[in-house]
């Protein structure tokens, strides 16, 4: 059987995205070589300090055509507020990909690794191991609304959230399926149905309705405030957590922070039907404060690459083997070093990438 060539658009983006991307690619190429996968990677400089600085927008008008035929997007980070306001850079790149490519699932695994000091007292690996499934195309992320009486003391601002039955049901169904595939078969819905009195009780109802097809999965609904506290106090309660766009974004920063560093957290923005390319990126942003020092932790980028290979090969054969080898190499490096400063070490981004690639090649 001939192996297909996977065409990948690598977009480093802004800040530390430019530093972690080479390490992500280094490990991807090492895994591809070892497991016989063919990758055709094209690097694209669509970022605030590159394309935007020259053309006044984050990407060319024909960005979608340029990406046609691409199997996946490997993305670093977006945001360079010194020159481009954050909402302009985010809406001009990442959110365009998520929406136009209907990447309605944002999958964000959270896991405490052996060898990583946990900021939560007494927690050990196994206590924190859950999956955040974030709705990724609607919800609180809208540009619907406006300002009235601007600049006066009567100024009013309104911004709408949008939840559709189509949007909620498909992410809930995906989350129930994910929970079903795990040993504990437990799903938590992040809600706030006491305070947000229309849309959140509606989410509760949609979860009940979709959940009828999953009698083997236990469903637990928790208000986002106490759920956040339990991420810190009782993380072992969680298995799969499904949340709206904003709640999911916040939870998937908080979760990794409880595992020692957000520098480990990967994500997969999926179009599960594979009609459009999916996008794989670290959860962290561009971190302008540490950019240029070669100290950013590249593991989130590298782990995102492993998720990409797994998705591209539908979790089969060489792709699954490559994924597993990368995750194993990450586990080894976290247990034995080297470590970047976010993990208490003084190793560089490059050193970590080289160490992981070396283990993958072995
Ligand atoms: N690599 C992720 C990234 O660049 N994040 C910047 C950010 O602010 N993202 C918001 C979001 O994921 O919704």
TrEMBL record:
Keywords recorded for this protein, A-Z: Lyase, Manganese, Metal-binding, NAD, Oxidoreductase
Domain of life per record: Bacteria
Enzyme class: oxidoreductase
PROSITE patterns: IDH_IMDH
Catalysed reaction, written as an equation: (R)-malate + NAD(+) = pyruvate + CO2 + NADH
Cofactor: Mn(2+); Mg(2+)
UniProt family annotation: Belongs to the isocitrate and isopropylmalate dehydrogenases family.
Name of the featured protein: D-malate dehydrogenase (decarboxylating)
